[in-house]
Amino acid sequence: MIENGTHWLGTIYFVIPTWKWLVLIGIFAGSIFLFPLSRALCSKIKKLETLKPKTIGFWHYYSKLKIEAPTSWVLICCIWLITFESLDLPPGLDKYLTLIIKLLLSLNIGRLVYISMDAVGSVVADYTAKTPSTLDDHLAPLAVRSSKVLIVILGALIVLQNFGVNVMSLMAGLGLGGLALALAAQDAAANLIGSIMIILDRPFSIGDSVKVTDVEGIIESIGFRSTRIRTGYNSLITIPNSIMAKEKIDNMGVRPYRRVRQVLGLHYDTPPELITQFCARVRYIIQQDTTSVKDTIQVSFTQFADSSLNITVVFHLEIFDVQEELRRTQNIFCEIISAAKEMSVVFAYPTQTVYYSETGKI
Q1: Which fold, 188-254?
Q2: pLDDT tens, 2-33?
């Protein structure tokens, strides 16, 4: 009877002996029970990792991601490959089974690497949050997404390689098309280089008020291709980063002080003594503002204009917000108007005197 059982196990059905079929069925059936067990074990390890009192880093964030399923698949695929290798299956069957398992293994390893980029993004976000610039806070997520795209492309190449496609020959065959694509993508490459230069040089940050060529506004977003500026008209202007990298940028958002300059025109009948008193009064009004930089205040009678005696007023406000600058400037100007009325100082306006006579002679 034992001999009959041994003979039955050695009988070849569908190109391989019965005992090999039993081993294959056992391995695949065991994987059904191994998969949830592996996921549960992985979840337990993740929980222990998050409970460790240590510095928050890559493994801390990676252990919070959903990696149980792809990790279990990688483990099972490795067991299958070892089993196929030890069973010494026929070349045809071994080829197709190994191809399927390697494809499944490659996809799940790619999933793990793809998911890991989210952990990398969290680590980078922690680092950029500590830097004074806000530019890297917006560019870091773009870099992570670009890395994910690269991982997908590499994964697709690996899958093609597993199917027997010569990837190097394929890429060489696409060389002519790649050349045409490179010529068509010159602007994209220039914008990418411009983005890198902006990241390294940091000429501005999100929220800065800048002037580039004839565009003036607030930086709203910075991408790998372009930078968007919100103008005073509330329109949104998109400027390629290749232009941003080579043009002169006037970053008004990093000014330590806001400069205010105004010319006050007084009537020509204003006596010199009153002009001197009015200049001192204007200087005093500006000094009373808590944000004014005291050693930069200049109030002087500077010009005999066509219709007025001009007083130049220059001062700086230690303010970083545009709305606050406008509000403070308005308060100062209103106080100057009140002081002029109190001192009977008359502001001039453009006038012209015409002399004529009936004989045509003046």
Answers
A1: SH3 type barrels. (2.30.30)
A2: 444 455 555 565 556 666 667 777 777 777 77
